[in-house]
Amino acid sequence: MSDTTTNPPSTATKLVAEAIGTFVLVFGGVGTALFAANFPAGSEGNPLGVGFVGVALAFGLTVLAGAYAFGPISGGHFNPAITLGLAVAGRFEWRNTIGYIIAQLIGGALGTTLLVLIGLFGPADWLATAQDGGFASNGYGELSPGGFGLGAAIIAEILLTGLFVLIILGVTHTVRGTAALAPLAIGLTLTLIHLISIPIDNTSVNPARSIAAAIYGGPGPLSQVWVFIVFPIVGGLLAGLLHRALFEPKALPADRAEARVR
Questions:
Q1: How many CB atoms lie within 10 A of CB 138?
Q2: Per-residue pLDDT of the chain (262 residues; tens, 9 = 90+)
Q3: Are 200 and 146 in contact (CB under 8 A)?
């Protein structure tokens, strides 16, 4: 008789899964923003480009696919704000957070690096134009697609990242969640988040995505990327604390538990 027992994935396997999942998210989402949002490049009226809706769907679809493919291995975080939010909610071990975050940053940077390599073989001015335009980086003020200021970016990133983490904690709950449909709910939520906030700050809710784009976006995006590191993490941590306080069952003291049994 064959042994059908499977060993749990090793730490190295989990880290590779996180790196690949983040790579897919960044390569797919940022790549759609760069290559397909406005096509042909510079065309008036955007006759063939996918626009904001297409970019939002690209981010949602990539996280959905990544969650189905790699979620059973690593949990499918692909985002430092999610990793830290899950940790503070008591759903992920703190000792594993640093490794996950490093893997996510590497995966994201690899995603934009591959986009740059593709751009090198594109039209003569494509890569320079993409970098002059910020390489789909996040930004506020002059770098905001809709001209929104720093305060708008801070509020949007805290609120939307917090909602994202709350929904993830809900749909992946071992009792209340539905494992088979959780990636679908997460992907659709990320799509909605992008539909809301692309005009505000080009949507981060993910420091790994923001850093990956900013490293090729030039001085402006690099000078603002701190906002899209700090405030998504703040939103994730607040959501984790809120979920733990409101939605996780509290253990009763021994004497009260005994009284309840009686």
A1: 33
A2: 334 457 889 999 999 999 999 999 999 999 999 999 988 766 666 678 899 999 999 999 999 999 999 999 999 999 999 999 999 999 999 999 999 999 999 999 999 999 999 999 999 899 999 999 999 999 999 999 999 999 999 999 999 999 999 999 999 988 887 888 999 999 999 999 999 999 999 999 999 999 999 999 999 999 999 999 999 999 999 999 999 999 887 655 555 544 444 4
A3: yes
Tokens found for residue 91:
């759903």
The rounded distance, in Å, linking the Cα atoms of 104 and 207 is: 9
Which residue's entry shows tokens 């042994």?
3
Measuring CA to CA, how many Å separate 233 from each of 46, 129, 237? 34, 31, 6
Q: What is the largest CA-CA distance in the chain?
A: 79
Helix, strand, coil share (%) of the chain residues, nearest 5: 70, 0, 30
Residue 191 near residue 50 (C-beta atoms within 8 A): no
Query: For residue 110, what are its two tokens?
Result: 């690899």
